[in-house]
């Protein structure tokens, strides 16, 4: 009843007759239900009737919210006006007739003389594109659908008599509208189209649409049909596999900036450097030095070619794996007036599009351009950008280069086969890249729920309540491993925490859980319950115990590891480190002297032994090791600190202060040096106190180091 009162208050300030009538009808039906209930009538249909009233109230609220949001935004208001000022009839039946007529008219062009068909074709596509832009705007800004509209649109999208380009564009409009304001009818339409469509391009767009229009909260509270539809869809193993692929592909898109950095800072410099070397080699005269170099190093040229190929192959491998390697370049090419129309960002590429047809007519005989637009690994949006930019680029090319383009002799980045282009994964990736460009670059992007926003976690759809306890959870560990490899540990942890079906709580589950820092000690112990002799789990447990300064338990765990693998040097060394931290110096030295004898050049062993001897007061023996450590080309930071303590403990106060100061200057910003040296000394305060150094000595050492003037 509060919802009704609140809406009455709103409509009193913002009067609207139709909405007032709808609210009055809801209120009257609710009051009637209350009256019967108060009289003691037991209506078995009461729960369904109550939910229907809630649904009607939600629809009223959602329609008003949509209208207010549209009219508050100048850009969205312009779309609303475009659709509503048009004299067109937007009933689905009329829309379908218009779309089918277009297909028939295009087919009839084949019967016309060539000299008239060309202009007629342009006019036909121009008018149809205008119609599609208005239809797109209408769907984006219209109210929620009723069941009849949903069924009619579903049939339209599944019909073989409608052009696939039009169907794809309509699916995108439905998707954006449903993402902005949940509509069970639009959701049902999208998921039915995904289940039944035979056109893979339409089907993959519908997959994205229903996945990102899920509203788990409304599904639980009100629209139970949504969960039923999803569970039904997940019974298909192919659907589960595609959802896992989609989840991974989302993160490939979201990593576009990181991939761009990798290409610009790592791959391209190597590529250009090796190209330049080869060019210089080709242009050099065969003088005596170069001839001699070829004789002495015949493999040099081959190695340069191999480096060039490796750099190029690395970028292509990124692209094949799903990385959006072209976003960086094409993101600068979305300022053409062509992209002022929102629907063009999602329109499948075709050369009859009125926005590019004139440009295409100028260059359609250039084989390179035809090939790259047909077989290049670019999304639709980038193909339009490429063609629009081609005119400018071509005018700046030398005649020889233009000749190569005309004949198709120029080598493109990567030519894809028809089999690869037709795969569901590739079709989906291209659509995601179109979506990603819109949400990153279009002025209207803030008017929609941005599923690529890293801060909102919208992209991580597998963590929605909707997928709890579903069969798709069997693949969560695969997604977690993928995210870890992509350095997305926070997202990986969210996926792990969304795995609620205990039948998947196996050894790997607990190992991943521990690695991601989710109660790691308990997680590794659970893993060991499942596999008590797992060195991997024991080692992980020992490391986390050591990190937590629980040296006694870490020591016990390393002892268990040595029972399994007594000769492993790293276990022995780590055991010695634990013993050293527990001040069991003599026991640690027994291990360390043997390891140092076997490998005297191992600085890790020398480092631990030097500190153990320092703690044990065996300064002369420690001195030899510190000389060895401090003579290394790259001095380890720990060695600098330990050596400073050694100097201090042996009475070399000034040298110790200099050593501490040198370390701080090299590693710590000036404003943080005071805290840093206090932490370093505080960490070893117990050892210092056992050696006769009190708190006042420590304070004077800090003053002597003089971190503020260092």
Please provide a brief summary of the model:
With 710 residues, the chain is an all-alpha fold. It has helices at 2-13, 17-38, 46-72, 74-84, 92-108, 114-141, 147-158, 164-180, 184-196, 200-212, 216-221, 224-234, 237-254, 256-283, 288-296, 300-321, 327-330, 357-363, 367-375, 380-395, 399-406, 418-421, 424-441, 476-485, 489-497, 507-515, 520-530, 535-547, 551-564, 569-581, 585-598, 603-615, 619-630, 637-649, 653-667, 673-683, 685-690, 695-705. Residues 291-297 have low confidence and may be disordered.
Number of strands: 0
Which strand-content bin applies to the residues?
under 5%
Helix residue percentage? over 70%
Outline the biggest β-sheet.
none
End-to-end gap: 70 Å
Q: Uncertain segments of ≥5 residues (pLDDT<50)?
A: 291-297
Q: What is the residue-averaged pLDDT? A: 87
Q: Helical segment tally?
A: 38
Structural class: mainly alpha
Structural Rg: 35 Å
Spatial shape: elongated
